[in-house]
Amino acid sequence: MNITTEGIVLKSTRLGGTDRVCTIMTEAHGVIRAFAKGAQNPKNKNASSTAQFSSGQFTLYYSHDKYTIDEASCGQPFFALRSDICALALAQYLCELFAEVARTEENAHDELRLLRGALHYLSAGTRPHLLVKSAAEMRLLAWEGYAPDLLMCRECGCFECDTMYFIPSAGQLICSDCAAHSGGHVTGAALGKGALMALRHTVYSELDKLFSFSLPDSSLLSLSAACEQYVKAQLDREFSTLGFYKAVAMQEIPQ
């Protein structure tokens, strides 16, 4: 059976001498693994279009529960990522996250749009890295069954106060008054009004407007830390690519 679908290569690994196995975020079938015969050879027609971050149309042959790439056309390669080590490292983390969390064998039109948007902004350098990371993390998890409840304090129903705490393990909010009444035993990320509004935006906004907010650096750091904690708590795993990104980003900060 032949299948033609839009997709982005999340991971590309050498298989044997000249073959590759690619993990692809596809529009028609979610995350799949597909074999690309001879693609490790630079002269192969699918060599460049099966490299990591390649985005375009893939013609796949499906047989015996296995996908094989017959042809791939590279429509949006995101080449600029390779000129910015921080953007490249963050893009690798997002690809690993999508490979772990995004749906398989189902239509994934919105997930592909989300990933394409994140890679576009990282490649273009027109949005802060932490903004792109936080928005992509939270929206992906919300879509894939890990949606938090960010409407109000879980104890008193308060919608907003100067500081609210986001509890990663529960995916819920608690206001500062209720946190104080609990004896100070709340384990969560403290968020000011701006960071809380941004966190809600990452989950509830229209997809077309997902990356269109701004925050001061201090609030963006708070948002990013809260999102990271949520990913770790919900998925119960670490991502080596995230660790690499954070190490590289620290080196980029002026001393």
What secondary-structure arrangement, pairings included, does this model have?
Blueprint: E1 2-15, E2 19-26, E3 30-36, E4 55-63, E5 66-74, H1 85-101, H2 109-124, H3 129-146, E6 164-167, E7 172-175, H4 176-181, E8 189-191, H5 193-204, H6 217-235, H7 240-252
Parallel strand pairs: 3-5
Antiparallel strand pairs: 1-2, 1-4, 2-3, 4-5, 6-7, 6-8
> What is the number of helical segments per DSSP (H or I, 4+ residues)?
7
What is the number of beta strands? 8
Q: Main sheet?
A: 5 strands, mixed, barrel
Structural class: alpha+beta
- Which strand order does the major sheet show? 1-2-3-5-4
List keywords for this structure.
single chain; 255 residues; alpha+beta; OB fold (Dihydrolipoamide Acetyltransferase, E2P); de novo design (two linked rop proteins); 2 domains; five-stranded mixed β-barrel
Structural account:
This protein is α+β, with helices and mostly antiparallel strands and 255 residues long. The protein folds into two domains: 2-74, Beta Barrel (OB fold (Dihydrolipoamide Acetyltransferase, E2P)), CATH 2.40.50.140; 79-149 and 189-252, Up-down Bundle (de novo design (two linked rop proteins)). It contains seven helices and eight strands; from the N terminus they run βββββαααββαβααα. A five-stranded mixed barrel has the order 1-2-3-5-4. α1 packs antiparallel against α2 and α1 (85-101) runs parallel beside α3.
